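Quick review question:
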């Protein structure tokens, strides 16, 4: 039964993905005598935590119950009291956790606090699934950068636009709606400056009822983005963060700040913004999961530096030809052994298109 209840806790935790940064998206289920008496997941902006939500729902029924939680309960006093203390105060008899928190403020201490209070602790239940769901949080703690998903929507021959730049729409409405759902499970949506100029995207989640829109991130060395475009017009409503190079036109800098954008200075690598440094800067600001939608030059740079954790592709049933714009720019590879390889996770039809998901090996 432990696996069954933990699977439910994991599904609850996924409801918070994209809404809880910089905190992890955790799920919690409280069970007493075979009956679920409380359920919870981390709320928008990361508070209250999943355990607190589930305990509030359970009330007095939590005494003597088992709490299933996808991550080790926190043990430190931050903006809220520790969840380990809340579980102890509620009289929970047993805690089943999927994985240990890698945050040094918590790691192992939450479990020890529970054991010291006489609570039975079981760990490692569905640990692999939990580690995957929480990979962005763990990666930020351990390496400083968020987990990165790269999404590309291509023609059958790997093109994202015709030679004249026409790209709307290669894939169908079902695939585009699916992408909106993917955006909603990430903390930020990221594109390169070329895509921002060519497509004038909004990069928001539409018709999904999300509580917290993802941050819109653009990598633009010179900050030469449309000042009357969608991102500029909505920067005060939904955050826009622009990673830029060291030399800026003071007028452009002042204009974007006045529009409400946050400007993030990043070093250059081979004449362009260093994507590794940009991701470190995003991690420092609390992001744990970033969804990159191209374009080709940014995709190539991310892959070349081995910064892509997950690949999601949509392939449409049309061919554009060699004169079309490739989905991934030049990477300078001479041997197949130099190319990053990913393991296939899933492939299935989405409307008239094909979805394929790949994960770092």
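Suggested answer, residue by residue:
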């Amino acid at each position: 039964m432990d696996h069954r209840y933990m699977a439910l806790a994991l599904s609850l935790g996924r409801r918070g993905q994209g809404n809880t940064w910089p905190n992890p998206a955790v799920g919690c289920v409280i069970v007493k005598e075979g009956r679920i008496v409380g359920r919870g997941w981390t709320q928008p902006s990361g508070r209250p935590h999943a355990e607190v939500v589930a305990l509030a729902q359970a009330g007095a029924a939590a005494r003597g119950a088992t709490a299933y939680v996808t991550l080790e309960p926190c043990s430190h006093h931050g903006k809220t009291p520790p969840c380990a203390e809340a579980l102890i105060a509620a009289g929970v008899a047993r805690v089943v956790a999927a994985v240990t928190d890698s945050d040094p403020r918590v790691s192992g201490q939450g479990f020890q606090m529970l054991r010291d209070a006489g609570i039975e602790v079981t760990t490692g239940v569905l640990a692999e699934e939990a580690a995957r769901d929480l990979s962005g949080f763990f990666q930020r703690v351990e390496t400083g950068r968020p987990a990165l998903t790269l999404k590309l929507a291509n023609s059958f021959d790997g093109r994202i636009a015709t030679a004249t730049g026409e790209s709307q729409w290669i894939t169908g409405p079902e695939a585009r709606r699916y992408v909106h759902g993917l955006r909603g499970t990430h903390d930020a949506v990221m594109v390169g400056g070329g895509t921002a100029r060519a497509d004038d995207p909004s990069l928001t989640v539409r018709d999904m009822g999300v509580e917290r829109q993802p941050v819109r991130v653009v990598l633009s060395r010179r900050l030469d983005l449309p000042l009357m475009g969608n991102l500029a017009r909505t920067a005060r409503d939904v955050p826009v963060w622009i990673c830029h190079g060291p030399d800026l036109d003071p007028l452009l800098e002042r204009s974007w700040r006045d529009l409400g954008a946050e400007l993030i200075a990043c070093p250059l690598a081979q004449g362009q913004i260093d994507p590794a440094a940009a991701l470190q800067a995003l991690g420092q600001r609390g992001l744990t999961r970033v969804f990159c939608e191209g374009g080709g030059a940014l995709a190539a740079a991310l892959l070349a530096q081995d910064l892509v954790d997950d690949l999601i592709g949509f392939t449409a049933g049309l061919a554009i030809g060699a004169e079309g714009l490739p989905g991934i720019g030049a990477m300078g590879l001479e041997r197949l052994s130099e190319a990053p390889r990913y393991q296939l996770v899933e492939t299935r039809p989405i409307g008239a298109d094909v979805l394929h998901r790949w994960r770092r090996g």
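Why it works: The chain has two domains: 1-136, 144-360. The two ends are 31 Å apart (CA to CA).
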